[in-house]
Design goal:
Structural class: mainly alpha
Bound molecules: protoporphyrin IX containing FE
Order of helices and strands: HEHHHHHHHHHEEEEHHEEH
Strand content: 5-15%
CATH topology: Cytochrome p450
Strand order of the largest sheet: 1-7-6
Radius of gyration: 22 Å
Helix content: 40-55%
Shape: globular
Number of strands: 7
Amino acid sequence: MLPVISAEVCAMARRMYRSPPPGAARVELKRRLFELSLSALMETIARTKTSRAVPDDDTDMCPEVQEFMKALDVFLPLLSADNSWDYLPVLRWFDVFGVRNKILATVSARDAFLRRLIDAERRRLEEGEGGENDERKSMIGVMLSLQKSEPVVYTDTTIMALCSERLSKNRQPPVKLMLIKRGRKLTRPWGTPRLLGADDVPRLGYLQCIVSETLRLYPVLPTLVPHESTADCTVGGHHVPSGTMLLINVYAIHRDPAIWADLTAFRPERFEDGRAEGLFMMPFGMGRRKCPGEALALRTLGLVLGTLIQCFDWDTGGGAVVDMAEGVGITLPRVVPLEAICKPRHAMLDVLKGL
Ligand code: HEM
């Protein structure tokens, strides 16, 4: 997946450099980063890049991603909405506000979309593309090959469910402008004018500290995903009956004064030289169901943030203070999406022109 992500990060830097007006441009980072992550994901799942209408268009999205994004715009608010039936289950039967119908409609639109992706990949494979030794095989391509040897396990329905799971796990990396200012010292080690690569990220210790400190203060999933107890147990003196829905308040754990000094301050240094090792940090969960994508996610966050800092100078415009207010939702969204002015860095102009 890393080569696909690196290519998409490079495309994002190129588009930001080329987007008008020349010099400095106001950028809505949330949109750019959402496009980037969905594009990389869609490319891994279905190799959609080739279907882009205009390769140099000012968007990081192929038509498939644009379509999926529209569906997400409808679906995500329904997921994070306070449904009255969560509190009064009897209301479920009456479908108050028509939420159930709306969810069913989006689910069937999503299934139709995934079926089209699978059919397109099947056609490509039948036409001889993506053979056994093709390293660029998509996730759907791999599963369609497995379908031939294990048709009972890899049915079209299973493939659709796995793709849907992967796409719904897409998250927006929480890059904040205040990090970028602190990260200025990151430019020193690179010296030579070349674009940061995924292999550079593990060597850039301070960049990783910035990512860790961001995930501490703003965990992407502040209550992780709901778990359920499979047996009666006692936790911290509290009886937890079997079948209880359990939400882990990672947001509070990451700001526990008993663990973290100066807990609301943004101090990446607290992670330097393994100093925070052994402290409770769990933005990716813990134990058997911990996120298997952690290493890839950390590398990707470092690469995206590092590229944005390496290639551009950032400013809020007129000394405006970034509004960090948190909104409502399962992924800790900001109330005010971050907009910033980005200006290509002089030292990187040749690199950016050549992208
Ligand atoms: C910033 C990026 C990411 C964050 C913050 C994140 C966080 C999480 C969290 C909190 C969970 C639930 C853990 C639990 O049950 O307690 C999870 C599950 C999962 N994540 Fe991630 N994740 C990220 C990126 C990724 C990536 C890049 C992949 C795949 C390449 C991925 C694949 C998964 C899968 C498959 C699960 C379900 C694991 C299971 O239930 O056994 N995640 N993630």
